[in-house]
Write a structure and sequence with these properties.
Layout: E1 14-19, E2 22-24, E3 28-32, E4 38-42, E5 52-59, E6 64-73, H1 101-117, E7 124-126, E8 136-142, E9 145-149, E10 156-158, H2 167-182, E11 190-196, E12 203-207, E13 214-218, E14 221-225, E15 228-233, E16 236-241, H3 250-264, E17 270-274, H4 280-284, E18 291-296, H5 299-308, E19 314-318, H6 321-327, E20 335-338, H7 347-354, E21 360-365, H8 368-377, E22 382-390, E23 400-407
Parallel strand pairs: 4-6, 7-22, 17-18, 17-20, 18-19, 20-21
Antiparallel strand pairs: 1-5, 2-3, 3-4, 5-6, 8-9, 8-11, 9-10, 11-12, 12-13, 13-14, 15-16, 21-23, 22-23
Helix pairs in contact: 1-8, 6-7
């Protein structure tokens, strides 16, 4: 019996053997019981439609959930993962899908959007490329072990490198371990972050307890550094602090958003850039608006935004988005961009945005379920006009969602 199954009071798990029909959001394999009820199955690696699996399942009110115990008939598309930690690491659960990972992810997105927004919804798919690699990774250090969290737990899986990360970043993992061991870095337990930009490029490290102190990797040794990262933009560059938010796959994200904004012809009088970080979206749209307002609760991000946007008619606000929108008086030729954390927009912020007069609202999100929920909450004031989904996180079930909403009052 699989001990991961949590029983209902007095209940017993049921053995199931059947085929995966399709993949649902979150890399959940969707199967069907003999009586027609839906079964949601998870596995440490990708599940392919058509695979025969066995599992112990627990029934809920209308469906069952369980963990795949064995893949009895693997898909011919399944390959052995090139990453030795993929079966235990909590990150890349689509590694065994290889080049079909993007196709499986597109199926997941389609299933989610059809359920949450309707089967007739039109949307664009932007696949990843070989250059789409992580330029920010979060590692955990405890009891002398450095690595990623194991899937579904806080146990640490020690790793030597990461195929999902940029080459310089992957190679720096071992050097971070050495620095923690030999005392060149403080032996602080908890979360360490490694990041690398695309201009130098310089690998930087910082610890969650002291985000103002950053170390740079210079000739294989860790040295105190400025913490300033620099990124290439079309005809410009942008700087951010290592401890401030920037896109995880920085270079690929810049290329995607720049192309999308141009294709969608985003422009107007004033851009209200909520959760604006260091001003990336505002700088990408520098020639498309007359003035800019960048809002972020991170002091280091806003400090960077002030420097990045100094040539523009821009005001940068160190405050949370809710308090800014509460006082905001947008006009029909304005555009609002909201790129909240994974948890999405608050219910109150959605209510306030529904009362705004801006002509367009761009909603960005990296959690599909929260993104669709927020689209629903915004329906009172906004209509969905365009929707794009980009695979900016290869080998995982995560995607970047972007919606263009038009104001119903205009």
């Amino acid at each position: 019996m699989n001990q991961d199954i949590e029983l209902n009071a007095g209940g017993q798990p049921e053995f199931f053997e059947g085929r995966i029909e399709r993949l649902g959001w979150g890399a959940v394999g969707i199967a069907r019981h003999a009586d027609g009820r839906i079964i949601l199955l998870r596995h440490s690696e990708a599940l392919f439609p058509g695979e025969l699996v066995s599992a112990w399942i627990e029934w809920k009110a209308r469906h069952a959930e369980g963990q795949v115990a064995q893949i009895l008939e693997p898909s011919g598309d399944r390959i052995a993962s090139a990453c030795p930690w993929s079966s235990t690491c909590g990150g890349c659960n689509l590694h065994e899908a290889a080049e079909r990972g993007g196709e499986l992810k597109r199926q997941m997105v389609g299933d989610l959007l059809a359920k949450q927004l309707g089967s007739s919804i039109d949307w664009e798919w932007h696949p990843s490329s070989e250059q789409t690699l992580r330029q920010v990774i979060q590692l955990h250090f405890l009891d002398g072990v450095l690595g990623y969290h194991a899937r579904g737990s806080h146990e640490i899986v020690a790793i030597d490198n990461c195929p999902a990360a940029a080459q310089q970043l992957s190679a720096a993992i071992g050097l971070l371990r050495e620095g923690l061991s030999d005392g060149s870095l403080p032996q602080l337990e908890g979360r360490w972050e490694l990041t690398v930009d695309d201009i130098e490029p310089v690998v930087m490290a910082w610890h969650e307890d002291d985000p103002g102190k950053v170390w740079e990797l210079q000739t294989g040794k860790w040295q105190p550094g400025s913490g300033i990262l620099r990124w290439k933009l079309p005809g410009a560059e942008i700087a951010s602090h290592a401890s401030g938010f920037f896109q995880v796959t920085g270079s690929s994200a810049i290329s995607f958003f720049d192309g999308l904004f141009r294709n969608w012809q985003i422009g107007g009088d004033r851009l209200h850039d909520l959760y604006g970080g260091c001003g990336l979206f505002s700088l990408l749209l520098a020639g498309s608006f007359h003035s800019f307002a960048v809002v972020d609760s991170s002091e280091s991000s806003i400090t960077s935004a002030v420097v990045n946007l100094k040539e523009l008619d821009a005001r940068c606000f160190h405050r949370d988005a809710d308090s800014y929108v509460r006082r905001m008086q947008s006009k029909p030729n304005d555009v609002i961009i909201a790129d909240p954390p994974r948890s999405g927009l608050s219910r109150e912020l959605c209510r306030m945005l529904n009362d705004q007069a801006a002509g367009s609202l761009l909603l960005v999100g990296c959690d599909g379920a929260a993104f669709c929920r927020d689209i629903g909450r915004l329906q009172a004031g906004w209509r969905l006009e365009r929707l794009a989904v980009a695979d900016l996180f290869p080998w995982t079930e995560q995607c970047e969602f972007v919606a263009l909403l038009g104001n119903r009052a205009n």
